[in-house]
Amino acid sequence: MGLLTAFASACGNGSASSSQPAAGKAEETAAAAVKPPSVLNYGYIGTNKLNFPGGAEGWGFYKGIIQEELKKYGITEVKLTAFPNGPDQSESLISGRLDIGSLGDTPALLARSTGAKTRAITQGATESIGYLIGKKGGPTSIADLKGKTVAIQKGSFMHRYIAGLVKEQKVPDVKFIHMLRPDGEAALSRGEVDAMTNSAIFALKQIEQGYPLIDDATKHPNLIGTSITVVSEDYLKKFPGFQKVWNEARLKAYKDLASKPDEYYQFLSQLNGFTPELNKQVSPISTIKDVNFTDDGVKLLEGTKQFLVDEKLAEKDFDLNQWILK
User: Fold this and answer.
1) Partners of 229 in the β-ladder
2) Which interval of the chain is the signal sequence (predicted)?
C-alpha cells in the first residue's frame, strides 16, 4: 500500500434542508442586492460534442433553465469547460479559472485537504459505482491482483474504490499506474496492464466485449462514490447566497427532466454515444438527488474523507461541516 502515497500528490437518505428557515429570506435578499460578475465559469468531468454534463445540471444548461434563473441576478453568460478528471478540474478552480464545478467527491476532498478555498454546495448523486475490469486471460478475482498492475485515474472516486478494496481484501504488492480512461482501455486491450478501474457505462461496454468483471463497488457500499458541486470562496464573496440560487435553479431543472424521462435519456445518449436504453440502465433518473444534501450522502462523504486521512492520502484532516454550505 506504500505505492498509494502518490495518491495525495496526484490530486486530481434523510434530507437536509437547503437553508435555515430564518436565514433563507436574508440570503435571498442579499443575493438580489449584489451584482455578481456577468460571466459564470463552470467545470464538469467528461468531454462530448454538445459540451454538457449529465444530471440535473447538464439538463438545466442544455434546456437553458439554469441560465434563465441566473439572468435574474445579472449573470448573462455561463461558460462550460470539460475536464478529463477531477484533479485537473480542482486545479482550475484553485487557480481562479473556474468559479464552480461538479466532480467526484474524492478529488474535491483531496483538494480541500490541501487548503483549497472551496465550499461544497450540492451532492447531486450518491451512487457513483467503480468497476474493476481485467484483461482477457488475466486476473478474474481480487486475490489474483497480487503482484499485478492496475491502471487507475489517480485522485478519482475510482481510485478511492480500488485503494479501499485492496486494503479491505489485504492484497499485497498491487502496482497502480495513472492513466486516463481512453489510455487505460487501450493498455488493457494490448495486455500492458492486468486490470483497470472504469465507470459504469464504459465498464459495461468492456464487459460486453469479453473483458472479465473482477469486482464493482455495489458489493462494497462503503466504497461507493458521490458527486459534489463546489464553488470557490472568492466567488461566494462576489455573490453571497449563491448556493441558494444555484440549488433552486438546479431543482427546477431536475423537475423538468423528471417529467420528460424519454427526452432526458435521449439527451444522455447524445452525450456519450450509447443507446437511451443503456443510459436508462446505468444512469436512472432515480439516482439524481432533488435536494442539495442527504444524511446518507453526507455519511458516505465522511467515510471517504476519513479513509483518505487514515491512509495518509489526504494532506490534512478538516471539518466536513465547515466545508459543506447548506
Assistant:
1) 102, 122
2) none
Strands of 195-199's sheet, edge to edge? 175-178, 149-152, 195-199, 130-134, 213-216
CATH number at 130-223: 3.40.190.10
CA distance 252 to 247: 9
Residue 77: partners with Cβ closer than 8 Å, 6 or more residues away: 38, 39, 40
- Rounded CA gap, 158 and 191, in Å? 21
pTM of the model: 0.85
In this structure, which topology does domain 23-128+224-323 adopt according to CATH? D-Maltodextrin-Binding Protein; domain 2 (3.40.190)
Cα separation, 100 vs 120, in Å, equals 10
The predicted-structure confidence for 113-156, as pLDDT tens digits, reads as follows 999 999 999 999 999 999 999 999 999 999 999 999 999 999 99
Ranges for all domains in the chain classified under CATH 3.40.190.10: 23-128+224-323, 130-223
Torsion of CA 77, 250, 321, 19, to 10 degrees: 110
